[in-house]
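Hey,
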Amino acid sequence: MSPKSSNPTLSHRLSAFSDRNFKYLMIAPAILVLLLVGLFPLIYSLVVSFQNITMTEVDTSFAGLLNYRQLFGDLRLWQALGHTVLITAVALPLELILGFLLAELFLEKIPGRQAFVALLVLPTVLSPIVAGATWRLMFDVRFGPIGQILSFLAGTPVNILWTVNPAYVYPAIIICEVWQWTPFMFLLLLAALSNVDPSQLEAAELDGASYWRVLRQIVLPAIAPVVAIAVLIRGLDLFRVFDIIWALTEGGPGSMTETISLYTYVSGFVQFDTSYTAAVAFLVVAVLTIIVTYALRRTELVR
């Protein structure tokens, strides 16, 4: 067969290939950029974690599992991990419950509904570092409005060192977290509740079903996928919390409120223990990967 007769066939094959894979060709540049931005730092950090780079020494030779063995004997690391779990375990249910209650409240058509919703969402659009700094000023023992309000209600001066006293630092962090991120839960749950089939609710009402029975058998199953996504997103966000705690307490008093993110920052950018910090980062990545994989399979969002 002559080259001229084979050209139409080749062109036809190229055209067919382009038609079949056009969508993949369109997203290929974006995937390539994501891989370069996300995968390269991850691989580089993995390589660094097997070296021994510190502030005083740049040893790029293979150090084996030296940094990973050090993880298991680092009490401060495990304490930071415990602090992170504690904040997540307390703040996440509070945000979910309060967000659901607010969504139930604003599900009905009430006067000024749109204005109230817009006001409720305002804390979420603030930068966490700004929110933390604002609450630090509000908690100030001399000039903060919270102390003045409590003094007025108690009828006697109330001087609480919210960001210093070990008994109050965690309540201060939880209050700030819940204040800022409950509106996020509220918006997601409001959208989910708005899409619950009204015919099922009307049928349950005609059958005389109680509120709790309707909630348990109709509403919660209908919004379960949205709840799972909301809990997963906020759980991951709380696990890496940094800004608010840094603005409020800087991990203090001592290291009492130091989370895993703060510990990683101090280890890497204050003590400049680069290789060990890379090992800590990979521990966090491994923990989060296990949690996300389990959560996705448990909720059947990914099969």
